[in-house]
């Protein structure tokens, strides 16, 4: 099954603990082995991005370490 064929209609979305009140709202859906669906909580009917779990974990580690705090 490709990411294009993935049915996320029944996904249990949860807001990321890194979301903030300034408009940065990311939701993830657990329960999909090997992949991590991610979407913008302000546009729940919009598209979701799907990442391999390992790459998502590496991204979260980089965020936690401040690697992307350039603004």
Automatic annotation (TrEMBL):
This is DUF397 domain-containing protein. Pfam families: DUF397 (PF04149). It comes from Kitasatospora xanthocidica. Residues 11-64 form the DUF397 domain.
